[in-house]
Amino acid sequence: QVYAPAHFPLRVPRAFVAKMAVGDAHDPLLKQVLPDRQEQIAVTGYITDPLAENDQNPIKGLLHKYQSRILLTVTGACAIHCRYCFRQHFDYNANMPTSTEHLAIASYIKEHPEVNEVILSGGDPLSVSNRRLFAWLDTLEAIPQLTTIRLHTRLPLVIPERLDDALLDRFSQSRCNIVLVVHCNHANEIDTNTAQYLQRARVAGIVLLNQAVLLKGINDSVETQTALSQRLFAAGVLP
Question: 64: helix, coil or strand?
Answer without folding.
Answer: strand
